[in-house]
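Dear colleague,

Following up on Tuesday's group meeting, I ran the structure prediction for the three-component complex that the binding team flagged. I've pasted the input sequences exactly as they went in, so you can double-check that nothing got truncated or mislabelled along the way. The structure tokens for the whole assembly follow below. Feel free to forward this to whoever is handling the docking comparison.

Inputs:
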Amino acid sequence: MIEFEGVSFVHPTGVKALDGVTLKVGGGETVAVVGENGAGKTTLVKHVTGLLKPSKGRVLVDGVATTATTTAELSRKVGVAFQNPDHQLFSESVEAEMAFALRNFGFSEELVERRVAWGLELFGLTEYRASSPLVLSGGEKKRLTLACILAWDPQVVILDEPTVGQDALQKERLAETIRMLTSTGKTILVVSHDIEFLWPIQPRVVVMKSGKVVGDGRAAEVMAQKGLLESARVAQPQLVSFHGALRSRPTSPFVDPAEARRWIAGERR
Amino acid sequence: MPAMLEVEGLSFRYPESRRKAVSDFGLRVEEGEIVVLAGPSGCGKSTLLRAVNGLVPHMYSGDYSGDVRVAGRSVKATDMRELAQTVGFLFQNPENQIFMFSVERDVAFGLENLGVPRPEMRARVDEALRLLGVEPLAQRAPHELSDGQKQRVALAGVIAMRPKLVILDEPTSLLDPKTASELVGLVARLRKELGTTFLIVEHRLDLLVGVADRMVVMSEGRKVLDGTPADVLLGEEAEGYGVAVPSITRLQKALAREGLVSGSRVMTSAELAAAVEGPGGI
Amino acid sequence: MMWLSSGFLFRSGKSFYHRIDPRVKLLCSILMFVCAIIARFVYEIAIVVAFVLGVAAAAKALRRVGRTVAFTSLFSVLIFGLNFFVTRDLESSVLYAARFVGIVVSTSLFFVTTSPDELEQVMKTFRLPRDIVFAFVTAVRFVPVLMLDAMQIMDAQKSRGLEMQKGNVLRRIRSMVPVLVPLVVTSVVRSGELAEAMESRAYGAVPRPTSLVQYRARAADKVVAVAALLLFALTAYSFYVVLPPLGL
């Protein structure tokens, strides 16, 4: 679905933000991109939507090189929820906000209406249908930006730091949404610092450092590599450190506290 | 001797809102304590913080009742600029609290406003730069700094004013975890070296468990829990109030409930592993 | 668009000219400015412009100042065209356009080599009220931040299928709305946060705030100031007495 072939990107300022990135994401995969600020995560995302074009190498989305198409066309397939909702909300109503992209893509009014209603329902925003997006709370704004994207049913969904400023309950709901999207076969890219949020989702994890991909694999494999995580300044999930600190332990780390508790209780018996 | 911070029966309602943002809230913080304030979005944490440094009611007016005293002085009756010498405030977004074009000028900003004479100002700026480890950045412009550096510079600007109480409003939410834990390390160091009192709002409780003396949980404008991190996080109620209890602490709690571990403090991953495998363990 | 307007934006440097006292730099720019105005012939203005560009080159700021010339070239053409249209006099039309270029480069030289902190100092020298000085400083400080916001907003909207370069003028103007509204909203949010931070750091506590750094004119600055004045007198004398009246 998404292919990076030896992609490098140098900013006009001369900073090398991507350095020989090769990465293949298949349809229906859920991939977390982690790394410290400035490691190149956002630059990576912008290459998928064609907002940036590689200085070297190429990026293919659904088999088409991003250089051969426009962001407008690519976004039909790739929906991105950027970090700050205030950077995109502008309409007079929540409903119009959701319809914006659909109209840009030339959906019929009848379809627009149906999709908007579906999105509002899914994210519990129906009661705000006619209110201005600006009066929503931070968490609701985040949900709205996600609803805006899912409304046009892109094959790829990218979430850029979705948990910033979100409390425990909001994060839990977000994780639910990601699971739901995975089950409907979407390809998902989550860029996040929030290791504790990512861990229970058990995505494929791509670790970035200074514009390079330095780790790539199943969450359980990557997160167990303490040295790799430390060099990339990525925190290790608490349950993985716990698992690593046990002298006798099951082969793979615990996904949630309940699993760990069951295992320990079993061992005790 | 008065406490560093005394909040008594504070209620506050913004004019455009029907609901009280803070409701009959009481809190007492002693000098040198590090207190973490937790609770879901919209529970009134931000408003409470602003009532401590005087933004409420001096900048945001509304229905105000009750009393807030910092080092014995009533916040409501004291000018904000005077309060600024006792209470420092570090905001969430570092970008929006750096005004000047060089780091050292920005660290001096508050002192310039207070009319501190130049030689003394120089000394205090240098001290703050040193304490926060940003001396090498003294001549940099804000756009040449990383987010983590910006947040340190902003904190240096607060510390240069030598406040007795420093408020941190989700200071790490835009930082990556390593940078965030470095900032928390600095907070612990400042308390040790300067005896500064801290009141911190933060969602990432795992970072703060090790340094906090107390945790206070707010819900719908009210104080619902108040105790040591262990009291709050190992108790049964916190999760119900939307507090993000770290996963390792949830495990500790579950194991304790079945008598598989004991202990009254919040453990780290390594400590919990040792406790599980220790005497009487697996 | 962005690289053009950067002609007036400060860029830090360590050249001799950068380190001159900002007030002396202001004096130099004013004198060059005046030279461009009092010059009577195009070639005299050319000498002034060449001199300014020479100073800019010495300050390693030639490219930035050059950008300003490129940025304002449209105005120069406009000035020439209007003049020529009204007076039908080629000579004076070129003169006016050239004079404009002279004014632009001398002003640009000042802004490109003077940091906002120094500008603030200059404004303080003129005893402008603190609020005005501070408003100016923050405005300049937040120009790059605002540009970054604008770019992020455009990225977000393009990712929702917004096409800004398509259709007729009306459609293009309409396509600006999804960018401008969030830009205004984020700026308002930002201003609110700035105001909170200012209040929290005792802004306005005393009527005459002190300053961490003090700009004291050094001997070298005084030498430059005197030299600039002498050079100015010499130029003015040459323009009116020594140099021959040479038209195009």
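Residues 2-114+217-242 of chain C form one domain.

Cheers,
M.
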